[in-house]
Amino acid sequence: MDTAVRKIFLDQLFHWYSIHKRDLPWRNTTNPxxxxxxxxxxxxxxxxxxxxxxxxxxxxxxxxxxxANAEEEEILRLWQGLGYYSRARNLHQTAKQIQQRFQGIxxxxxxxxxxxxxxxxxxxxxxxxxAFQLPYAVVDGNVYRVLAxxxxxxxxxxxxxxxxxxxEIANQLLPDKNHSIYNQAIMEFxxxxxxxxxxxxxxxxxxxxxxxxxxxxxDILPFKSKKVVKTNRYINYIVFKSxxxxxxxxxxxxDIWEGLYDFYIAEPIxxxxxxxxxxxxxxxxxxxxxxxxxxxxxxxxxxxxxLFVKYFLVEIQDVNKILSLLKIDFYPIDEIFNLPKPxxxxxxxxxxxxx
Length: 355
Description:
By secondary structure, this protein is of the alpha+beta class. Helices cover 47% and strands 13% of the residues.
């Protein structure tokens, strides 16, 4: 890399960051547990959304050992609404591993960090840099974007070759000192200035050396060839009600929302059901019922699935019969409130039940 270009890039980046950096709590600490927590929460999550969860977790689990000793359901309940729940489960397992293998002390060795469940190169680099001031370059989606645009890199970030190439460029740019500040600066620059859409090129301090600005390629860099193929999935929830209790089902491994609670899904119906479909299904299993409410269809987007969700509120009298037919349990409202649930279930309950 050209030495003069590297110097301009670093000088301008540090200057920009000194003026525009946000005051975020994980930037004011070297506590490795707080940094681990923030990095996991901010995966696939905007700062504005993740910040309340960060404070909530620190309040409920002020130490790593407190998190390790918590029940998984408690953690999932606290995570509720943040999505990508595997992050919460992995975080819990990571805390347990650190407790068992390192006496509850997060290691300051990069390879040991990398050996922990749920910690990849990015998170290990972030902890090593921010908590222990070690010279590791952090490369996340924001960094990919800045590097690709400024230096005109067309390597595919969805390939192992591309990932390795960007990591090498990031390592070359890492300054001899202030590694942590540099990593924070380039991520902040990508998050708030060199944004995915409509970056602030006209007022950019790095404009003079930016390849994307010179060639008008901001919209195509960084290059990513592999597109996520989404499938459509229809979920027809039967909300069984008996007196003041409702049936809830704990979701198992191998599908979305593992460990969370939702309503009974009429899985034999693979399309968007109507009232007749539900009544025919319930009659086919010999269950006497009263259909009290049918919702509109709600669309909910996940990474790999488009969910089309509909709710059917069904009142029943014979609880023993439904328990013998279906693998569900009935809970009173106060218990349901405290169960970890997908946001779709919480919204329905707030709209139709809790109010």
